[in-house]
Amino acid sequence: MKKQQGFTLIELVVVIVILGILAVTAAPKFMNLQNDARTATLEGLKGSIQGAAGIVYGKAAIKGVEAESDDSVSDAGQTIKTVYGYPAATSAGIGKTIVGLEGDNADWAPVVSTVGLPANSIAYTIKNQADKATPTECSVVYTQAGEDSAPVVKVNKC
User: Fold this and answer.
1) How many domains does the chain have?
2) Of 7, 80, 91, 104, whose CB count within 10 A is highest?
3) 110 lies in which domain range?
């Protein structure tokens, strides 16, 4: 009697079928990792914008211009345009508040499309997504402060 020294063809086919079924059920979980990573990065930008806006408001309050609808404060050699003490939703406002938010060497860029962008708002995204992102998808939208309200920062998932 000979001893069996391997797997039969049927056993190998069964194992391959089982692995295929596992791959089909597990693949969707891993397919969206890139978009999840982009969204998490945008959440980090949201936190930076909120923190920077708070610092600018503190500087405006010290200067006594937090109630002005059109003024500016200085920070690290930059003149930041403010609206009711918070950075304006422009390149001269929030764009100058955070290092690396705009410019040639920046990690971020303003969203090219402005369709759907609320009034007095600006949208930013990851630099390599600037032409693909919209104000409602894969972006962070900064809406400047009103007379009785703080600015609103919203993340739109990728």
Assistant:
1) 1
2) 80
3) 33-156
pTM of the model: 0.79
Indicate whether 11 belongs to any domain.
no
Please report how many Cα atoms fall inside a 13 Å half-sphere around the Cα of residue 31, on the Cβ side. 6
Could you report the per-residue pLDDT of 15-34, keeping only the tens digit for each?
Answer: 999 988 888 887 777 777 88
In a domain, 4, yes or no: no
**Cβ partners under 8 Å of residue 155, min gap 6:** 39, 42, 43, 46, 139, 140
Helices then strands, each counted (H, E), the chain: 3, 7
80, two tokens: 């930041």
The alpha carbon of residue 26 and the mean position of all alpha carbons in its chain are separated, in whole angstroms, by: 27
User: pLDDT, tens digit, for every residue of 109-123?
Assistant: 999 888 889 889 999
> What residues contact 63, with CB distance under 8 A and at least 6 apart?
73
Domain membership of residue 15 (yes or no) is: no
- Who contacts 136 (Cβ-Cβ below 8 Å, separation ≥6)? 116, 156
Question: Could you tell me if residue 60 is inside a domain?
Answer: yes
